Amino acid sequence: MRLSAIFPSRTIAIYMGKLFLVRTFAIMAALVLVLQALDLLSESGNILAVPGNGDGEVWRYVSLRAPQIISFVLPFSVLLGTILTLITMNQNSEVIALKAGGLSAHQVLAPLLLASAGVAVISFAFNDRITPRATATLNAWQKVDYGPLPIDSGDRSNVWVRDGDDLLQVDLIRGRGAATQLGGVTLYDRTGGSLRSIVRAPRGQRENNAWRIGPGTRFDVASGQVTRFASMVVGNGVTPEQLTLAGVDADSLSFRGLSEAIDDLQKAGRPTKALEGSLWHKLSGPLSAVLMPLLGAVAAFGVARSGKLFVRAIIGMALGFAYFVADNFALAMGNLGAYPPFLAAWAPFLLFLLIGEAVLIRTEE
User: Is there a contact between 347 and 341 (Cβ–Cβ < 8 Å)?
Assistant: First the structure.
């Protein structure tokens, strides 16, 4: 199909695309400003309660929280931007003029669909590069109750693993696989639930199927004596994946990082269905921006002076918000294991794509 068949007029396409993008990002800016202010009102007290925190820490919180809010409101902004654009064009009889010029409903929406595809690409890049880093840093900061901000180096910290009756705690973990290095190792040697000894060592490394730590100390609970040792083998059977993947937060990882984490978890024999659903949703979520012009298109067609324009706008918003409800429900069911990961991420998108097309074809008829 030739491009001229989809976009008969370059001028009209640019005009509609610009109108849509300006309204979308204006609505997004307004929503982000309001939600950020409300969120800051609830958290600023906790931030300033820490001795030494001031305006700098408040603005640091804003810089870390804003990417999460932007990711949340962007699809809503595309929906509202679509409806506002189409309502304006309908009121000014521009849609009627386009239809009278021989354009089909799909050709009228084509500039908006193309612009929303660009928004989807921007959304994916933003959610993949900026939001996960901000989320990981903010989560680490909140774990210390907004105290001194920990450095986000990509290393794992404060990891606990159970080895039979024993508990293994590691302050810092660097690397992956056989190259994994441990820092600040503490082994709680237990028998039948009773603590026998506490072994501490500043570092450790992989050796065969276990971990060699040392030099360190061993505190015997029964005698109360502390002995030193040059090296010791602990955690026989504890794999690097159990340490480096003790807790995987999908929101704190990029698409590639989450994919690698899922591969490692599968090799370790751990369940990954919920994470697989989140991985697919990192694609379907941004792509939902392309659905919004279809769902909001009901506001574009119909005579404005018929008095039903407001009702059409409400229907468009209802369809858009119904999609977000279905999307969150399907993702939650996927996390519970009721839906397969692919179905949990893509079923709402495909369902509402068909609904949008059906509404558009019915409107055109």
Answer: no
**Confidence grade of residue 52 (pLDDT, cut at 50, 70, 90):** confident
Residue 197: phi, psi to the nearest 5? -155, 165
* Percent of the chain residues past pLDDT 90, beyond the cut: 36
What 3 state SS string does 51-76 have? CCCCHHHHHHHHHHHHHHHHHHHHHH
**Is residue 354 very low, low, confident or very high in pLDDT (cuts 50, 70, 90)?**
very high
Phi–psi pair at 175, nearest 5 degrees: 80, 180
Contacts (Cβ under 8 Å, ≥6 apart) of 105: 297, 300, 301, 360, 361, 363, 364
Place of tokens 């386009």: 98
Summarize pLDDT for 25-40 with one digit per residue, the tens: 999 999 999 999 999 9
**Cα 24 to chain center, whole Å?**
21
In sequence order, what are the beta bridge partners of 199? Answer: 187, 218
Q: How far apart are CA 278 and CA 258, in angstroms?
A: 9
| Burial class, 184, CB count within 10 angstroms (exposed 0-12 / middle 13-18 / buried 19+) | middle
For the whole model, what pTM was predicted? Answer: 0.74
3-state helix, strand, coil in the chain (%, to 5): 65, 15, 20
Write down how long the chain is: 365
